[in-house]
Amino acid sequence: MRHAMPHATPSRRRRRLVAGLGAAGAAGAVTALVAVLVPSASASTLFSDDFENGAGNWSKSGGTWSVVSDGSKVYRQAKADSELARVFAGETSWADYSVEAKVKGLDLSKGLAGVAARASGSSTMYRLALTSAGKAELQSVKGSAVTVLGAAAVSDPAAWHTLKVDVSGSSVTGYVDGAKVASGTGSLTGTGRIGLVTSFASAEFDDVAVNPLGAGSPTTASPTATRTASATPTATRTATATPTATKTATKTPTASPTATRTATATPTATSPTASWPTATGSKPVTATIPVSGTLDGGNVRYFGSGALGGDGQDEGQDPLFKLADGAVLKNVILGAPAADGIHCSGSCTLINVWWENVGEDAATFKGGASATYTVDGGGARGADDKVFQHNGGGTLTIKNFQVEDFGKLYRSCGNCSTQHKRAVVVQNVVVTAPAGSLVGINANFGDTARISGVTVVGKKSLDICVKFTGNSSGKEPTKIGTGPDGVNCIYNESAITFK
User: What is the model's pLDDT at position 428?
Assistant: First the structure.
């Protein structure tokens, strides 16, 4: 709740408790305690957060976020030069709902700040944003493609405004301070989480609330309801961090990779059109999990927390998993935030690994010249840039894989301090809504890309293989060409299908 005056006043938490005690004695105290744990008084509210108890309900991706005081506690994104900073909360299965939040632009001179609905990836969402042009724009965002569904002028975007987005079926409607400003028809995925976003801007956010709409209302357990189960903030964060209602404590594996190693036969990889698996549980990861031998995750969702729960697009992050030479990781779901995904120190195999929202990179391969890496089955979503980063030497095979909403599937490092001759093999892969290219290699170091059986969905053309002149000085590599040449980019145009 916003305060008209910035001078010291009792916190919202304290005011609610005092009011409850004054109204009805001991019985009122119980009511007041529930009000503390569940910020919204509405029984139908799915989620609410005023940040008085921190921001433990949110996963971050990009930018510099912190809870600060501005009359009351607010969530501030302070990095105005961040291309896309966002935080997400709620359930991936939410369908028809209304999300609103109070938004104040601190620096909107070059960008925008707003609230998002149906976020199905780090850069796929509907959003209503205050812009540098002095408008509120209702947008459909899918990677680098931004479609304006409607807009209206807003006076003083630097003041607090309440932004609300209603999503119902394919209809999207935006409101500013209770007045309808835009509406349109969208074609994005029909479910997704809520978000707070900035792009080349800094802003503050407060008083977030989510309520159901119509017959298509979310059917998953309400995060707000789970807050009444315990009065401890830790329990609240654990309950709301789970993106689905299928979490059970008994299915969560122990922190020790040794305990989950198995000598069972390697499973058959999923096809590139297989349905995404439903998580059997969720496990926060506060420190990188080392893996040697085989780790079968049983389709548990692992997500970054604590030291690994920071900005999803920052360079130099630690991974959730670090695989030793020869290690196998299979049947694992990486949730958000995913930090720097998976690092392979030497040869490694990833079987049926799924990235719900790629952080910096899905996986980075760091082995020597004779290393072999295999990604077989699984899929990835929401990669602003690369999905797979090849920094070491050796050969990476990517097969039976699906990827959507991404920049590029593979990149041979163009400016690593130590360079190698690298090879990539891409087989039987389905790519949807790519923003950039399929693979990028360094011709001057002798890199090769062998590509077959690629299906591209949602685009009529795509740079399948891009050649660069790489370097070891850290400078941006130079693009020198695209397309098959029989030497570095080895494939037939007939091997690529566009749908």
Answer: 97
